């Protein structure tokens, strides 16, 4: 008998840009018997006393990042423990920057972050970066797009989400997208990534302990994925 699947969504009232709340809505369709927990800013995080199957956080504004950093700082050691224990994390957009060493503004000022990963995010607020991206995580092809004001700097060559085939990784010219340690995955990709990448979603569900993943609307999202994949392979979408 499978253990109860518990999915924890961090700060949905502010970490909700670009439609990425669709990731959690899709998981609810795939896992109708799972428990879904929302952590709000004024509450003690659920993960502080319990080990969920998945911790998810989506993209947010720059101001919201600072609120989230302040809110999570007292739980820094607990978060490290959960990462070391192999709890699944999925952070999309700029959410992973909260776990970095620091965020640097254009004027050179720096915002200290949780310092769990040795990376610096550098903001350029008048230079939005938009790009379609495709790459390989093991034998799974990942597709998605980026829409961001920051790039991340640091060596992720030994801890990345996927190797880029089209587009850029953490920063222009970098071939490795995202940050990964154990089952922690942080990526700039938007999508929502779980709807756009059905085989990756099956992979995530298995990491969470689902023995036989059953994707909602599987035929439809696989067909859309295959079409998107063929377009990504045929066209090298430019930076906008």
CATH topology, what is it called? Rossmann fold
Number of domains: 1
Q: What pattern of helices and strands is seen along the backbone?
A: EHEEHHEEEEEEEEEEEHHH
Uncertain segments of ≥5 residues (pLDDT<50)? none
- Quickly count the helices: 6
Q: In whole angstroms, how far apart are the ends?
A: 49 Å
List keywords for this structure.
240 residues, Rossmann fold, 6-stranded mixed sheet, 4-stranded mixed sheet, alpha/beta
Condensed summary:
The chain has 240 residues and is of the alpha/beta class. It has a single domain (6-234), classed as Class I glutamine amidotransferase (GATase) domain (Rossmann fold), CATH 3.40.50.880. 25% of the residues lie in helices and 27% in strands.
Spell out the blueprint of helices and strands.
Blueprint: E1 6-10, H1 22-30, E2 35-39, E3 54-57, H2 62-72, H3 76-84, E4 88-92, E5 102-104, E6 110-112, E7 120-123, E8 129-137, E9 140-148, E10 150-153, E11 162-166, E12 176-177, E13 179-181, E14 184-187, H4 193-196, H5 198-207, H6 218-234
Parallel strand pairs: 1-2, 1-3, 3-4, 4-14, 5-7
Antiparallel strand pairs: 5-6, 7-10, 8-9, 8-11, 11-12, 13-14
Describe this protein's structure:
The protein is an alpha/beta fold and 240 residues long. The chain is built from six helices and 14 strands. It has helices spanning 22-30, 62-72, 76-84, 193-196, 198-207, 218-234; strands at 6-10, 35-39, 54-57, 88-92, 102-104, 110-112, 120-123, 129-137, 140-148, 150-153, 162-166, 176-177, 179-181, 184-187. 42% of the residues are buried.
């Amino acid at each position: 008998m499978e253990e109860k699947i518990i999915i924890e969504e961090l700060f949905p009232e502010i970490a909700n840009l670009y439609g990425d709340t669709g990731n959690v809505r899709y998981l609810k369709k795939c896992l109708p018997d799972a428990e879904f927990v929302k952590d709000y800013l004024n509450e003690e995080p659920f993960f502080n006393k319990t080990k969920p199957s998945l911790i998810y956080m989506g993209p947010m504004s720059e101001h919201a990042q600072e609120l989230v950093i302040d809110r999570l700082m007292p739980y820094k050691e607990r978060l490290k423990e959960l990462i070391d224990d192999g709890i699944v994390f999925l952070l999309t957009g700029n959410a992973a920057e909260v776990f970095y060493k620091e965020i640097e503004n254009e004027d050179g000022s720096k915002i200290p972050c949780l310092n769990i990963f040795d990376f610096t995010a550098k903001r350029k607020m008048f230079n939005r970066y938009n790009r379609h991206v495709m790459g390989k995580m093991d034998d799974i092809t990942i597709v998605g797009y980026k829409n961001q004001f920051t790039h991340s700097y640091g060596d992720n060559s030994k801890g990345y989400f996927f190797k880029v085939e089209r587009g850029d990784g953490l920063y222009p010219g970098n071939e490795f997208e995202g940050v990964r340690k154990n089952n922690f995955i942080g990526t700039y990709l938007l999508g929502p990534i779980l709807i756009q990448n059905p085989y990756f979603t099956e992979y995530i569900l298995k990491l969470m302990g689902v023995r036989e993943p059953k994707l909602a609307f599987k035929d439809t999202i696989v067909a859309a994925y295959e079409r998107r994949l063929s377009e990504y392979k045929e066209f090298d979408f430019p930076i906008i």
